[in-house]
Amino acid sequence: MLQTVEQETGASPQWSVIWLHGLGADGHDFAPIVPELVRPHWPALRFVFPHAPVRPITINNGVPMRGWYDIVGMDFRSRADMAGVRESMAQLDALIAREIERGVAADHIFLAGFSQGGAVILSAALERTAPLAGLIALSTYLPDAEAARRVDGAVDVPVFMAHGSGDPVIPLAVAEHSAQVLRTLGLSLQWQRYPMAHQVCAEEIQALGDWLQERLGVA
Questions:
Q1: What angle separates helix 172-184 from helix 116-125, to the nearest 10 degrees?
Q2: pTM, whole model, 2 decimals?
Q3: Contacts of 140 (CB under 8 A, 6+ apart)
Q4: What share of the chain is helix, strand, coil (3-state, %, to 5)?
Q5: What positions carry a catalytic annotation?
Q6: Which residues does 90 contact at the CB level (< 8 Å), separation at least 6?
């Protein structure tokens, strides 16, 4: 089981958000977003921020750092080490199972990810046969998009996907293509675009809050 940073917004949470960070960061990276995102009248949520394993990253001259998979080249059609993606998907499944053991229903669990973390959760969505509350994919893309397929029995999961128009790490066109592939595969996806780089902005947090509020069923 991956080590995690956790925050609970109230007692006995019945909702969970498992949030995967980007390359070279760790589970502390998005913890500060919780007070900016959560609204006072929402039900209690447990935020789970796992630390990715440390691994050599090929495009960074093999320097070890926290990453959900190796990046083997610059071409987005083949840059992700898919064996590493699948390994991280299995670790994500273990975190989901732990939340269910803690008493959180599967359809009350959100998966969130930034950059590399988002690539893992989008890949996981295509193979998910049990319900989830939704996916939050920020400044990211779908690895191996041209070969992407949904498994038999895959469930419909609503997706909030947002990207910066000036992102120098993952070009906007790559993200837009990923969003189109996901829609073609049948996922219900809300797309948001912001005048920013490879980051998160206040307007994005506001829109994500609105989307989460609808999923949580509160006014």
A1: 10
A2: 0.96
A3: 113, 114, 115, 116, 117, 118, 119, 122, 161, 163, 170, 175, 178
A4: 35, 25, 45
A5: 115, 167, 198
A6: none
Tokens at 150, concatenated: 């949904």
Q: Alpha-carbon distance 178 to 89, whole Å?
A: 18
Quick one: 149 exposed, middle or buried, by C-beta within 10 A (0-12, 13-18, 19+)?
exposed
Nearest to 88 by CA among 100, 103, 74, 71: 71
CA distance 154 to 162: 23
Cα dihedral angle (113, 106, 208, 159), rounded to 10 degrees?
70
Cα gap 37→58, rounded to integer Å: 34
- 82 forms beta bridges with none
Going residue by residue through the chain, which has 219 residues, state the pLDDT in tens, using 9 for 90 and above: 999 999 999 999 999 999 999 999 999 999 999 999 999 999 999 999 999 999 999 999 999 999 999 999 888 878 899 999 999 999 999 999 999 999 999 999 999 999 999 999 999 999 999 999 999 999 999 998 888 999 998 888 999 999 999 999 999 999 999 999 999 999 999 999 999 999 999 999 999 999 999 999 987
